[in-house]
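Incident review: delayed structure delivery

Summary: a single-chain prediction request sat in the queue longer than the usual turnaround. Root cause was a stuck worker, restarted by the on-call engineer. No data loss occurred. The affected request and its eventual output are reproduced below so the record is complete for anyone auditing the incident later.

Affected input:
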Amino acid sequence: QETSKSDTTLERVMVAMNRMAVEPSARGAMVQQGCLTACIAVEQKEDLPSETRKNTVTQARHCVAKMLVTTNPALLTSSQRIGAIKPLLELVRHHQSSDLSQFEALMSLTNLASLNHETKDKIVAERGLKIITYAMYSDHDQVRQAATEALCNLVPHDGMLEHLSNKENLRLWVSFSCDIEYEEKLGTARAASGCIAMA
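Output delivered after worker restart:
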């Protein structure tokens, strides 16, 4: 499908916003000025046949992750919190996502999951347990730790407790909690141990 001028313009806007969001001090102002809401709106467009549109959505998802990794979720509206969850999970799920983008998305999900039952419900409803659990197998230590912490913050949601009641899943968590041989894995081990203790 032919790429329109409006598609190209939107892609450039998302790229520019993503670059702005690299600066932590700019993120709060970006959220206040509507950048988060705009990125969520891009995610909600389902017609994505062209490479330009696909890249636009990827840029929007990463921008959401960058903005929310350091933003207190209590300062967001309910629609912003709920609307951000799907793009963050899609960023974690996508096989072409960089380690950095997955890490930032997982940290943002960790923050959102810590807020209230509504955000936990939405994460579970969007297949978040499966997506985040898969990220626990990442070769990148920080991605693995962030995934573990995100799931830990879903306790005591019924979906997470059911997840841990599965023997295979529980075996994975116990394995992570005992993996303290290397210093870079201590954070993951602590998060896994804390999750088991809370459950």
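Verification: The CA atoms of residues 75 and 81 lie 9 Å apart.
Action items: add queue-age alerting; document worker restart procedure.
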